[in-house]
Write a structure and sequence with these properties.
Layout (H helix, E strand, L loop, with lengths): L10 H12 L2 E4 L12 E4 L13 E6 L2 E2 L4 E6 L2 E10 L5 E10 L4 E9 L3 E8 L1
Parallel strand pairs: 1-5, 2-8
Antiparallel strand pairs: 2-5, 3-4, 3-6, 6-7, 8-9
């Protein structure tokens, strides 16, 4: 009977690299064919996987009722009104969930950022880039 030896020591760098790479994914949040950048809006944030390593610890949980995958940090949306559910982290223990409305304009890029808040420990704001 043959035995396969697995070296666990070498698995950690690979796992860490996969987490970091998956934290950079883009998701198209509309139906149909891909559109030109002038015809859509982009929403940027940390991803659920990358929030621990991010200087901006806020990520989108859902947009317009659709769940956002854990590795997604950039959402491409049609222009118009959108409702985002975002989670921000004040530190390793505390965080809070917020509902944010955005009226997206074609060709624009928006960034979700966290801001200190004495009541909820953090809040979410949207800035236009």
């Amino acid at each position: 009977m043959s035995c396969i030896r697995v070296r666990h020591r070498g698995a950690w760098p690979v796992a860490a690299a996969l987490v970091l790479l998956s934290a950079c994914a883009t998701a198209r949040m509309y139906e149909g064919e891909a559109r030109l950048s002038e015809e859509v809006a982009v929403i940027q944030s940390a991803s659920q996987l990358g929030v621990l390593f991010s200087p901006n610890p806020v990520y989108v949980k859902s947009i317009d009722g659709r769940q956002v995958a854990a590795g997604v940090s950039e959402l491409v949306v049609e222009p118009g009104e959108h409702i985002l559910v975002a989670r921000c982290r004040a530190n390793l223990i505390y965080g809070s969930t917020h509902t944010v409305e955005l009226v997206a304009q074609a060709g624009e890029t928006y960034r979700l950022e966290s801001a200190p808040n004495p009541t909820t420990r953090c809040s979410v704001r949207i800035t236009e880039e």
